[in-house]
């Protein structure tokens, strides 16, 4: 009888250890997936202008790829945290961007297949519900500080690359 009780206790302990191990694995997977989703991803971006004495412009930009990242953008921040944000759109489209909950003005560089196809200068933080759309469809949008386009003499047709 004592052997049977001992055997039951051992089985119960094994079952309990299995539950704890399974819970630890599930917790580890959850934390890994959650932290990957909350880590900011950055890229090195270069704009090559076509002026005679122009130098390539190098930037460190945050990437916005998921629908949640694209919707959030740079809103509710006091600073950019990088030189700008590159939005990687899910397909070629004419997106509408707005300045909801923005705390600083921006320039928009509209990009299709590595080439600048439209420019929107000095977008103010208000009115927040006004939308800004390129003249043609794009694959990427680069948000940078207001005045950047003019300061760096950026034009339509200039090329943009990132790694």
Task: Put the structure in a nutshell.
By secondary structure, this protein is an alpha+beta fold.
Please explain how this structure is put together.
The protein has 163 residues and is of the alpha+beta class. The protein folds into 2 domains: 1-39; 41-162, Jelly Rolls (Sandwich). 29% of the residues lie in helices and 35% in strands. The chain is built from 3 helices and 9 strands. It has helices at 2-38, 67-72, 148-151; strands spanning 42-48, 57-64, 84-93, 97-98, 106-112, 115-123, 131-132, 138-145, 159-162. A 7-stranded mixed sheet has the order 6-5-8-3-2-1-9. A two-stranded antiparallel ribbon has the order 4-7. Strand 5 (106-112) and strand 6 (115-123) form a beta hairpin. The longest helix has 37 residues, at 2-38.
List keywords for this structure.
163 residues; alpha+beta; Jelly Rolls; 2 domains; 7-stranded mixed beta sheet; two-stranded antiparallel ribbon; 35% strand
